[in-house]
Amino acid sequence: MQEQLRKLSILAAMTWTIVTLAGTDATALTYNDIYGKWCSSGGSEHFAQHSLTVVRASDGARIVFRIDSYEFSDTRVTVNWIDAKKKKVFTEFGEFSSDGERMVQLPNENGPRRLFQRC
Question: By the number of CB atoms within 10 A of the CB, which of 2, 16, 49, 81 ranks highest?
C-alpha cells in the first residue's frame, strides 16, 4: 500500500512538471497584442474593438472599416472585417515580437506580407 502511494505521488509530480513546463511557451495572443496604432511602409493602421482605421502613406487618405471579430491563437491574430464593397474579408497577423513592438501582416488575396511596428 505504501509503495502504491509512493508511485502515485511520483506520477502526480511528474504530471504536474510536464504540464507546467509545456505551458510556459504556449501563451495565446490577446487583444492587447494588436490593439492600438501600427505603422508600415504603406501607412498606419489603428485597431480598436469594432473598427480598423487605415491611413495610406501614398495619399494620406483615412478609411475606417468595421471589424466583425478577432480570432486569437498562440501565434496569429485573424481580423475579420468589412471592406469598402461591404464584403466580409479577413487579414492575418503573426510573427509578433516578444516585446510587443513588431508584427507581420501575413500575405493573402487581400494583401501582401507587410512588417508593422508600433507607432
Answer: 81
What are the pLDDT tens digits along the chain (119 aa)?
555 434 434 433 343 333 333 333 447 899 999 999 999 999 999 999 999 999 999 999 999 999 999 999 999 999 999 999 999 999 999 999 999 999 999 998 878 899 999 99
Q: How many domains does the chain have?
A: 1
Q: What is the CATH number of the domain that holds 31?
A: 2.40.128.280
Tell whether the torsion through CA atoms of 7, 12, 15 and 20 is positive or negative: negative
- Report d(CA 44, CA 37) in Å as an integer: 7
User: Can you give the residue range of the structural domain that contains 68?
Assistant: 27-118
